[in-house]
UniProtKB/TrEMBL annotation:
Residues 68-458 form the AMP-dependent synthetase/ligase domain. The keyword Ligase applies. The lineage of its organism: Bacteria, Pseudomonadati, Bacteroidota, Sphingobacteriia, Sphingobacteriales. Residues 11-66 form the Acetyl-coenzyme A synthetase N-terminal domain. Pfam families: ACAS_N, AMP-binding, AMP-binding_C. It comes from Parapedobacter composti. This is Acetate--CoA ligase. It comes from the Bacteria. Residues 520-598 form the AMP-binding enzyme C-terminal domain. One of its GO terms (molecular function) is ATP binding.
Length: 639
């Protein structure tokens, strides 16, 4: 069986086969990868514990699939094209051969610094090629990487390092983002005050920001590379891994306070990201593929690094932001590097659309063959703008629905093969069995229906556990509905059987395509000394998709409410990171609670949305009068 599906008829046939004979199907797909040893059993599973094992008995290394196996034929093909933040700085290209050399070199650096198979390594780097090198070097020696997005605070880094007991941190002096410089090393230093497990910090030079290098702990990336060079640059053979050995941990927000470490393992994740990448985007041998995500999120892991590289693709990574030096930057990059496939988030599309068409006009986007979106529902207006202005009406848009936990796309069009409808993720990819259920877990059959989206059969890229706390994994994903993986998303299946994701049904916000738990933000707000209690909800935001709205009870009446708001924002930045700062803070004297003390978020959501016409039954509240006060306050805040 070929990896790429070429027609809708073929899609239907293969989909059917993948449901009827999942093990045979995935075994045929897995044949397209390089194994040191093949599997004994394709799949063993139950969703009760859960216990999910793909390709048991197989031995492999994902970097041999992403690098070594391509070098013979594609050695001089660009693997990574790097576009810097500043358009006046030279871009960089790493061919497959060069990337392999650099990965081997840095693998030896890791070994020289005492890192072995199974050790956890925290990576806190800007979007530079060394981030890809660091990730792949970990994978090559069997160390487990935990990449932390560069926008997270010291406290967030410390929590993640401690949860995973990381022995080593890889960071840079600083990072560039638009006009800003982020002092990454200094943030790491603040974090490490709380982290006993870290023995070594490797620091890459990027911004030439002064840093404090702690004796016996901190070393420079460049010096460590020189050491390997003086050792004669020995090769670093890939560690042979078991199929279910851990590949990486990536922390993500849920409906409770503490982010959880989603665990992905070697074989299944490799097969799944490679298969879904090549299919959804219908990647052709010489195409340049540009994903604008940050490698700090799952999109960057799966669809900048592992998926594209395992398929021998050219993956373009961008250090900067879409609106600097102006809102035409992405289009300049497309023109400069003759990008064929562009994959970005609806938030970026909306903000570039709002900046005006003059930034697109005159840019040569004729190379574009396919477009993609990810991370949040896309509104029709943004979809059409993307289609017309960027794709010129001839590039299929794949609206890829998936999650950190799913490893790769679950529901997505296949470019040029499946039909597309604005706002719809369309149909499940082969091997994916979605079902809609009602509150009681009863399956909702037929078309033209909505419900909570679950998956009833395993796929190779799925989450295996939450690091250090398997019970949490079970409770979060596998206990809400018996024998089903629960996604946390609401979903509509229309008359044609096409799927449209309607948004989270739990207490998780999606701000600019980033997942943020309301409880997490509340905990951060509550750290402020003047805050007694808070409740956070999402509200529709024209660019970010969702904005963060915080209702706050403060201990004393402040004459300068704005200053208190700034203080609270500062606190949230400190505890989580600037991405979690509330867009709106409303001071209230009480919160709508049931007699049992539960906050009625439904009411707060309505008020935040500005829709107070029908708040439902408020008579069961402990203090119904508080609702009127909050309503009035909200109107005042809107001005
Ligand atoms: C949302 C990002 C609508 C969804 C890959 C999901 C989407 C959450 C889409 C996962 C889409 C992702 N349409 N909503 N195409 N893709 N989502 O873990 O709510 O950062 O549960 O993974 O983003 O976010 P995460």
């Amino acid at each position: 069986m070929d990896l790429q599906i070429k027609s809708f008829e073929e899609y239907q046939r293969i989909y059917q086969y993948s449901v009827e004979k999942p093990e045979e199907f995935w075994a045929e797909i897995a044949e397209h990868f390089y194994w040191r040893r093949k599997w004994n059993k394709v799949l063993e599973w139950n969703f009760k514990e859960p216990n999910i094992k793909w390709f048991e008995g197989a031995r492999l290394n994902i970097t041999e699939n992403c690098l070594d196996r391509h070098v013979y034929k594609l050695g001089d093909k660009p693997a990574i094209i790097w576009e810097p933040n500043d358009p006046n700085e030279a871009h960089r290209v790493l061919t497959y051969k060069q990337l392999l050399d650099k990965v081997e070199q840095f693998s030896n650096v890791l070994k020289n610094n005492g890192i072995r198979k199974g050790d956890r390594v925290c990576i806190y780097l800007p979007m530079v090629p060394e981030l890809v090198i660091a990730v792949l070097a970990c994978a090559r020696i069997g160390a487990i990487h935990s990449v932390v997005f560069g926008g997270f605070s010291a406290q967030s880094i410390a929590d993640r390092i401690n949860d995973a007991d990381c022995r080593l941190v890889i960071t840079a002096d600083g990072g560039f983002r638009g006009t800003k410089q982020i002092a990454l090393k200094s943030i790491v230093d603040d974090a490490l005050v709380q982290c006993k497990s870290v023995e070594r910090v490797i620091v890459l030079t990027r911004t030439r920001t002064p840093v404090s290098m702690i004796k016996g702990r901190d070393v420079w990336w460049e010096d460590e590379i020189k050491k390997v060079e003086t050792q004669g640059n020995p090769p670093c053979p890939a560690e042979e891994m078991n199929a279910e050995d851990l590949l990486f941990i990536l922390y993500t927000s849920g409906s409770t306070g503490k982010p959880k470490g989603v665990v992905h393992t070697c074989a299944g994740y490799m097969v799944y990201t490679g298969y879904t990448f090549t299919n959804a985007f219908q990647y052709q041998p010489d195409e340049v593929y540009f994903c604008t995500a940050d490698i700090g999120w799952i999109t960057g892991h799966s669809y900048i690094i592992y998926g594209p590289l395992s398929q021998g693709a050219t993956s373009l990574m961008f250090e900067g932001v879409p609106n600097w030096p102006d809102a035409g930057r992405l289009w300049d990059i497309v023109e400069k590097h003759k990008v064929n496939i562009l994959y970005t988030a609806p938030t970026a599309i909306r903000s570039l659309m709002a900046a005006g068409d003059q930034y697109v006009e005159g840019k040569d986007l004729s190379t574009i063959t396919k477009l993609g979106t990810v991370g949040e529902p896309i509104n029709e207006e943004a979809w059409h703008w993307y289609d017309q202005k960027i794709g010129k009406g001839k590039a299929p848009i794949v609206d890829t629905w998936w999650q950190t936990e799913t490893g790769g796309f679950l529901i997505s069009p296949i470019a040029g093969v499946t039909p597309t409808v604005p706002g719809y993720a369309m149909l499940p990819l082969p091997g994916v069995q979605p079902i809609l259920v009602d509150e009681n877990g009863q399956e909702i059959e037929g078309n033209g229906v909505s419900g909570n989206l679950c998956i009833k059969y395993p796929w190779p890229g799925m989450i295996r556990t939450t690091y250090g706390d398997h019970e949490r994994c079970r409770q979060t994903y596998f206990s809400v509905y018996e024998n089903l993986y629960f996604t946390g998303d609401g979903c509509l299946r229309d008359e044609n059987g096409y799927y449209r994701i309607t948004g989270r049904v739990d207490d998780v916000l999606n701000v600019s395509g980033h997942r943020i738990g309301t409880a997490e933000v509340e905990n951060a707000i509550n750290m402020h000394s003047d805050v007694i209690e808070s409740a956070v909800v999402g509200y529709p935001h024209p660019v970010k998709g969702q904005g963060i709205y915080a209702f706050v009870i403060a201990s004393q009446h402040h004459t300068d409410e704005d200053l208190t708001r700034q203080d609270i924002n500062q606190t949230v930045s400190r505890i989580i990171g600037a991405i979690a700062k509330p867009d709106k803070i409303q001071f209230v004297s009480g919160l709508p609670k049931t007699r049992s003390g539960k906050i009625m978020r439904r009411i707060l959501r309505k008020i935040a949305e500005g829709d107070t016409s029908n708040l439902g039954d408020t008579t069961t509240l402990l203090d119904p009068a508080v609702v009127d006060e909050i309503k009035e306050g909200a109107e005042k805040l809107r001005g």
